[in-house]
């Protein structure tokens, strides 16, 4: 399955030019700063941007060409906005049944399925004004699923939520991928959010597609703006090795042999996990420190060093087993340690964040 996009949009002081093909499966994130064109692209995919020129096809069906455009209701999509947009005069059940009665495919999930997946069964008789923001958004997502779409579009659905509500919905979205095969295209300007959800990533800046590919690969490319953001981080795949109940820790293995300790999590042995390592929380030592409070000290090889005189900091890419992590050091540290490409070093990792605990890779 694929989504083929050829879009050239010109407006006052803004242009958007995208020419690409996406695999229509899994979770694809469109990421970039505010004003990059992310929402405009998503709205165009939905058929909500009239008077635009371009070509768009989904799984061989032409949605738009130079002569015509399929109306939104005939594209069999669901759209989740930043605001829940629930019908205020209908209960939660009424909102859900409205979508279910108009579903595109009779073999889609049932009302009970989505209530279980998103934990909204207890809300079924309430009305939107009786719900919190996070609860409303979970209902909005459930309503989208009940329409049995072929493609789900989400436009920063967590942007207006508090941290706790956001994390709860992220966990539900992670679990959804195990329960249904409908592809999701997700817009966000929050990389920490994206890194917990996405398989594939489109990086957009100033109306241009600057990179596309697997999230894990793009997260450690030092030639991309992504790696230069303040919260830049590498994404690593690992597996659970064991749980240290006494010390409230869990040991992970990177590529089946490098040990990494994190705060205790639930999960079975050999279960795959995805972790996030912030570049600012990694330091480099030329020798392995024998007397250190840092638990995670990994052998690594320097593969790239950013050459820049315009910043006080230098970005370094390390190979750790068969994966990569980023390190952000000062120019002075790089010079003092005489660091160079190909050098064998030790990466000292202060912070490791779990991103998901049931993701295939």
Instruction: Tell me which CATH architecture of the largest domain applies here.
Output: 3-Layer(aba) Sandwich
Inertia-based shape: globular
The description of the largest β-sheet is: 6 strands, mixed
CATH class of the largest domain: Alpha Beta
Helix vs. strand class: alpha+beta
CATH topology of the largest domain: Rossmann fold
Low-confidence stretches: 357-361
How much of the sequence is in beta strands?
A: 35-45%
CATH superfamily of the largest domain: P-loop containing nucleotide triphosphate hydrolases
Cα distance spanning the termini: 19 Å
Helix % is: 10-25%
Biggest sheet strand line-up: 6-7-8-3-9-10
Q: What is the tally of beta strands?
A: 20
The tally of structural domains comes to 2
SSE string: EEEHEEEHHHEHEHEEHEEEEEEEEHEE
* Rg calculated over all Cα atoms: 23 Å
Count of separate DSSP helical elements: 8
Protein name: Molybdenum ABC transporter ATP-binding protein
InterPro entries: AAA+_ATPase, ABC_transporter-like_ATP-bd, ABC_transporter-like_CS, Mo/tungstate-bd_C_term_dom, ModC_ABC_ATP-bd, Molybdenum_import_ModC, Mop_domain, P-loop_NTPase
Keywords: ATP-binding, Cell inner membrane, Cell membrane, Membrane, Molybdenum, Nucleotide-binding, Translocase, Transport
Organism: Oceanicoccus sagamiensis
């Amino acid at each position: 399955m694929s989504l083929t996009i050829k879009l050239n949009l010109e407006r006052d002081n803004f242009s958007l030019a995208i020419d690409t093909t996406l695999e229509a499966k899994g979770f694809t994130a469109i990421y970039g700063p505010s004003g990059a064109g992310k929402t405009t692209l998503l709205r165009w995919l939905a058929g909500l941007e009239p008077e635009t020129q371009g070509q768009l096809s989904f799984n061989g069906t032409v949605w738009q060409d130079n002569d015509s455009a399929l109306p939104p209701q005939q594209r069999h999509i669901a759209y989740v906005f930043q605001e829940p947009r629930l019908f205020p005069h209908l209960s939660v059940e009424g909102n859900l049944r409205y979508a279910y009665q108009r579903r595109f495919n009779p073999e889609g999930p049932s009302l009970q399925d989505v209530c279980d997946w998103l934990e909204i069964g207890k809300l079924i008789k309430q009305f939107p004004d009786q719900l919190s923001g996070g609860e409303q958004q979970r209902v909005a997502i459930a309503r989208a699923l009940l329409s049995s779409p072929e493609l789900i579009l989400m436009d920063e659905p967590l942007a207006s939520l508090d941290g706790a509500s956001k994390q709860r919905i992220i966990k539900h979205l992670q679990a959804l991928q195990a329960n249904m095969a409908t592809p999701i295209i997700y817009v966000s300007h929050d990389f920490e959010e994206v890194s917990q959800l996405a398989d594939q990533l489109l990086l957009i800046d100033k109306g241009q597609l600057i990179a596309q590919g697997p999230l894990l690969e793009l997260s450690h490319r030092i030639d991309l703006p992504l790696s230069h953001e303040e919260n830049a981080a590498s994404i690593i795949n690992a597996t659970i090795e064991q749980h240290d109940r006494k010390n409230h820790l869990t040991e992970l293995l990177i590529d089946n042999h490098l040990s990494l300790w994190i705060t205790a999590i639930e999960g079975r042995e050999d279960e795959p996990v995805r972790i996030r390592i912030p570049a600012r929380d990694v330091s480099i030592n030329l020798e392995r420190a024998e007397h250190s409070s840092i638990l995670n000290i990994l052998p690594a090889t320097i593969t790239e060093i950013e050459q820049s005189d315009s910043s006080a900091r230098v970005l370094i890419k390390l190979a750790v087993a068969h994966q990569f992590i980023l390190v952000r050091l000062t120019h002075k540290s790089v010079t003092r340690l005489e660091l160079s490409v190909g050098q064998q070093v030790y990466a000292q990792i202060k912070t490791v964040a779990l991103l998901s605990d049931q993701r295939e890779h």
